[in-house]
Amino acid sequence: RHLLSQRFKEIHGEHLCDVFASCLSGDFGVALELLALSPVAADCRLIQIACDGVGAKELYLFPIVCGRSNEDRIILQKTFLELNQTDLGKLMLKKLSFDLEKLVYICMHYAEEKYDPKIHTEEQAHRLADCLFEQAEAENWFGTNGNINEAVFTRICVAPPPFLTLTDKIHCKKYGHPIFYSVCKAQQLNPSCKKAALFSIGMKIRPFETVAKLIKSACAGLGTDELLLTSCIVRYQGILKEVALAHLDLFERSLQDRIRGETSGSYKRLLLALVDAALPEPGS
C-alpha cells in the first residue's frame, strides 16, 4: 500500500493522501488519507489531529505513543520531527498535563530492556508483583522527589513482555487478580491516566485482546468515535487477524458485525474490506 502511494507521487508529482484530502471528506476520506500514508506517517498525522487546538484528545494520543517497541518509538519520534519540524516529546509536554504527561514521558524516554532470563528471574518477578500490589494505594507511580527511575510505572515500562507476563502470573497466584487490578485500584490516578497505563501493560502481555478492547471502546456509548475506530483498523492492520479472533472470543461477536452495526456507506465498506482481508467471515 505504501509502495503504491510512493509510485503515485513518482508518476503524478503529488501525494496520494493530498489527492484524497482534496477530493473526499468525512470518515471515508480520512480513512483513505491514512491508508495512503506509511504506518508511521499515519500515526504522525493522527498526532497532529489529536493536538490540534487547545489541549489534546488524549484517547487518540496514548495508543500511538504507549505500548510501542524501542525501534518503533525511535522511528515515530524521528519521522514526526522530519514531517513537522517539531520535537514530539516537547509537543507532548505542552499538550498533556499531570499524571498522563508523566506516563507518556516515561513511555517515550525509557527503553524496554532486552529479555535476559539470567536477569529477569522469577525472584525479580516476585519483587515487582509485590511492589505493584503494595503501591496500588501509594502516590509514587511516577516517582517521588523527582526520582522517576524508581517510579512503579517506569519499572513496568522497561520490563520486557516475557518478564511482565511472568509477573502477572505470580501476581494472580499471590493476590488473586492480575496486575491490571492494581492499576484500576490506584485511587490517585485519573481516568485518562488509568486507561493509558492499562493499555501500555496490555500491549506487553495481551496485545490482541488490548486492541480488541480499544476497538470496542471506540464504539461504546451513544455515538461511535469514527476516528479512533479508523486509527485502530489502520494502525493494527498487520495483526488484524489476531485482533479479530480476540474480539470474537472476548465479545462473542465478529469484528465485521460490530463495524456493520456502527458505520455506514463507503466508510463501512472500506473498513469491512480491510478486516475481511485479514480474517474473512465464515461463509463470505
Describe the structure.
This protein has 284 residues and is mainly α. The protein has helices at 2-12, 16-23, 26-35, 39-51, 58-65, 70-84, 88-95, 98-109, 122-134, 152-158, 161-175, 179-185, 191-205, 207-218, 226-235, 240-251, 255-262, 265-278. α2 runs antiparallel to α3 and α3 (26-35) runs parallel beside α18 (265-278). It is globular, with a radius of gyration of 20 Å.
Keywords:
284 residues, 70% helix, 18 helices, mainly alpha
Topology (SSEs and partners):
Blueprint: H1 2-12, H2 16-23, H3 26-35, H4 39-51, H5 58-65, H6 70-84, H7 88-95, H8 98-109, H9 122-134, H10 152-158, H11 161-175, H12 179-185, H13 191-205, H14 207-218, H15 226-235, H16 240-251, H17 255-262, H18 265-278
Helix pairs in contact: 2-3, 3-15, 3-18, 4-5, 4-6, 5-13, 7-8, 8-13, 9-11, 13-14, 14-15, 14-16, 17-18
